[in-house]
């Protein structure tokens, strides 16, 4: 197949909001190199704004957890088939799957077998669990783009072509956090002690985490009446879900914000949050945090047997030591949360030491991820 040098046809597939942001950044950097490039595949509003022609709405792909995915499986398999058929017809110069590996990697494998060039952007946590997947990944892609340095080392050890590109968020978040400005933007008082509470962006996560987070907020409020709480709601459905739960504690001094999760974190003294990409944002805004996570019993029993990593949160993985407390599954109790939040609030020197460690990591992750990713993709295209 002849490579359309001036106007390549580039396919991208993103399955959730974080992938949509990455995809849009990569598209803009590729556009600078190939002004005539055309973009097809699946993405959200950010990628659409950057010029993607999306085959179906990305929201159809956003589900979490093993048991949750099972309910949507027939629909997901149908969409996957439709996408493979479409891409084989279109014959793009390269296909870039962004995150959502359970959906995107099997597509990459089928297309790779049929001679298309395939890239995966954002490594699955293969270094942490189900390491055997590396064999399948090797057969599915021409290039892995990693956001984090410890991931790239793992692929090099397994002879998989890899580029460490840094994390786009590290470029977008300033090295110095302006906490007073964040508070002002949210209409919060500058002199309050503030706990940001982030129970996750998906319905299942909020259902699992918010009740115990709320118990802890009530207990903290009893012992620290001056403490204020602020919760960003990822979307309208999450807002409704959180509001319903908050009705159980009508007197809590809590501010609910639509979106703006990074501003909320920047405004806080301490963050209580769900494990996930948001913990990286917490690191980048340089805040002490308490990380909690809980999934269905079946999902947890399966995951526990497969996990090879001693940490789950990105701050601990990046610092290679336990910098922030991780309260997972049965360890996630009201008492444990209260104790850990109090520990940060009562030890400003410890919090300050954490912030300087986080800053060093932030600097390591900076440096134009979208640019580096586009460089690696264009080298593959022109090979």
Number of domains: 2
Largest sheet strand order: 3-2-1-4-5-6-7
Mean pLDDT: 90
Major beta sheet, specifics?
7 strands, parallel
Question: Which CATH architecture of the largest domain is right?
Answer: 3-Layer(aba) Sandwich
Poorly predicted residue ranges: none
Strand fraction equals 15-25%
Total number of β-strand segments? 13
Q: Helix count, per DSSP?
A: 17
| CATH C-level class of the largest domain | Alpha Beta
What would you report as the Rg, rounded to the nearest angstrom? 21 Å
Indicate the CATH topology of the largest domain.
Rossmann fold
The span between the termini is 13 Å
Please give the share of residues in helix.
Answer: 40-55%
- The secondary-structure element order is EHEHEHEHEHEHEHHEHEHEHEHEHHEHHH
CATH homologous superfamily label of the largest domain: Glycogen Phosphorylase B
Question: What structural category do the secondary elements indicate?
Answer: alpha/beta
Q: What general outline do the C-alpha atoms trace?
A: globular
Enzyme class: transferase
InterPro entries: Glyco_trans_19 (IPR003835)
Pfam families: LpxB
Keywords: Glycosyltransferase, Lipid A biosynthesis, Lipid biosynthesis, Lipid metabolism, Transferase
């Amino acid at each position: 197949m002849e490579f359309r040098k001036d106007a390549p046809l580039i396919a991208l597939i993103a399955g959730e909001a974080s992938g949509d942001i990455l995809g849009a950044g990569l598209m803009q950097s590729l556009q600078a190199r190939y002004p005539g490039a055309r973009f097809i595949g699946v993405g959200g509003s950010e990628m659409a704004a950057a010029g993607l022609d999306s085959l179906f709405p990305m929201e159809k792909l956003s589900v979490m957890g093993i048991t949750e995915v099972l309910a949507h499986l027939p629909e997901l398999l149908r969409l996957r088939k439709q996408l493979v058929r479409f891409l084989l017809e279109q014959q793009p110069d390269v296909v870039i799957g962004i995150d959502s590996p359970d959906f995107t990697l099997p597509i990459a494998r089928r297309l790779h077998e049929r001679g298309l060039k395939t890239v995966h952007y954002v490594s699955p946590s293969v270094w942490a669990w189900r390491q055997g997947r590396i064999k399948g990944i090797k057969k599915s892609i021409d290039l892995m783009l990693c956001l984090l340095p410890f991931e790239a080392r793992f692929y090099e050890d397994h002879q998989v072509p890899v580029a460490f590109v840094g994390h786009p968020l590290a470029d977008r978040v300033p090295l110095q956090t302006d906490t007073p400005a964040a508070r002002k933007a949210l209409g919060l008082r500058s002199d309050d002690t503030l706990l940001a509470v982030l129970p996750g962006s998906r319905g299942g996560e909020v259902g699992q985490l918010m009740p115990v987070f709320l118990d802890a907020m009530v207990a903290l409020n009893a012992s620290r009446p001056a403490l204020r709480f602020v919760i960003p709601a990822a979307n309208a459905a999450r807002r409704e879900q959180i509001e319903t739960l908050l009705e159980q504690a009508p007197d809590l001094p809590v501010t609910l914000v639509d979106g703006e999760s990074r501003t909320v974190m920047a405004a806080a003294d301490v963050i209580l949050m769900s494990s996930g990409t948001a913990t990286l944002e917490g690191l980048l805004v340089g805040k002490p945090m308490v990380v909690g996570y809980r999934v269905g019993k079946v999902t947890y029993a399966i995951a526990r047997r497969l996990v090879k990593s001693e940490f789950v949160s990105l701050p601990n993985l990046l610092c290679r030591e336990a910098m922030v407390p991780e309260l997972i599954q049965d360890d996630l109790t009201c008492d444990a949360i209260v104790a850990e939040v109090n520990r940060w609030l009562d030890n400003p020197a410890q919090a300050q030491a954490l912030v300087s460690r986080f800053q060093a990591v932030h600097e390591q992750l900076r440096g134009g991820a979208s640019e580096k990713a586009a460089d690696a993709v264009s080298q593959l295209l022109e090979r």
